[in-house]
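Notebook p. 47: complex prediction with FE2/S2 (inorganic) cluster.
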Amino acid sequence: MVEIICKKIIAYSLGTRIVQLELKSPLIAKKTLPGQFVVLMVSEKGERIPLTVVDKDEERGTITLIFQEAGFTTRSLGSLKEGDFLYALVGPLGNYTEIKNYGKVALVGGGVGIAEIYPVAKALRKENNHLITILGARTKDLLILEKELKQVSQELYVTTDDGSYGRKGFVTDVLQELLTIHYALNAIELIYAVGPVPMMKGVSQIAKDRGIKAIVSLNALMVDATGMCGCCRVTVDGKTKFSCIDGPEFEAQSIDWEELGKRTKMYQDKETHICKLYNR
Ligand SMILES: Cc1cc2nc3c(=O)[nH]c(=O)nc-3n(C[C@H](O)[C@H](O)[C@H](O)COP(=O)(O)OP(=O)(O)OC[C@H]3O[C@@H](n4cnc5c(N)ncnc54)[C@H](O)[C@@H]3O)c2cc1C
Ligand code: FES
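Predicted complex, structure tokens below:
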């Protein structure tokens, strides 16, 4: 049983909530590294869901998770209060991000993917990288961690789909512009992106056109997170890989984006149905 120490609603717009939870978990706090995730179960009969460890505090023995209420399980998780307990928590899982001095790094975060780039940004900054951070949200009220990422970045750009804050448009528009107008060829050594599949696919294409290495962290659907069930499979360089044990990070240009896009939408109708039943 894992206690919820602190809960905050950090963003809200038109029925979409982004929630931050601090959980008591001294061992995971001690072990986890940027890029890794945990799998949790809200209740004994619930499903397992993977969430990135966004922050940790070894002294307090806590980890911080940030999630968007997307379907049944994230909504159940979001309904818990401080002092409540989760049924189970496993981690840290997945491979950690390769942190070193690359030089100039462009970090691209879309939606709740911003939460996933934050620990990587902090670690890259410690290695004296020059960070160019591009954040995108559907609307101003759903933008998260802007202040925190500004503190660790040399440059920060914000886009919103509806133009309510920052520049109107997509993160990929800014990335494209930076690479074609403001930065000389080969000035940016690495692009690190997390967000919806179409966004990461767009980043991948831009990186490919410019010959820049791009790493993405995939939010593939997962069940066991041990490489046994096959749920999180993704085709990378024509070979089957499992996001839970081979990832969650992969080189963007090697991914079969069409297949991944279809797989992430596979249970959409069923999920909408269960959420309707739940709300009755
Ligand atoms: C390694 C990893 C780290 C993750 N880290 C975070 C995180 O830090 N914060 C966060 O909010 N989410 C994160 N996710 C995604 C998160 O696991 C899903 O949002 C969650 O499982 C949804 O569960 P649900 O039962 O509420 O909704 P579901 O019933 O599973 O789905 C509701 C709808 O949301 C969409 N959806 C569900 N899961 C995903 C997914 N994995 N990727 C894209 N779309 C999806 C589908 O369209 C689906 O129909 C991560 C996923 C992985 C694999
Ligand atoms: S989640 Fe089962 S193989 Fe990765």
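Notes: The pocket of flavin-adenine dinucleotide (ligand 1) is lined by residues 37, 49-52, 66-68, 70-74, 94, 112, 115-116, 219-222, 243, 248, 264-265, 267-268, 271 (CB under 6 Å). The chain is about 30% helix and 35% strand.
Next step: compare against the earlier run before touching the bench.
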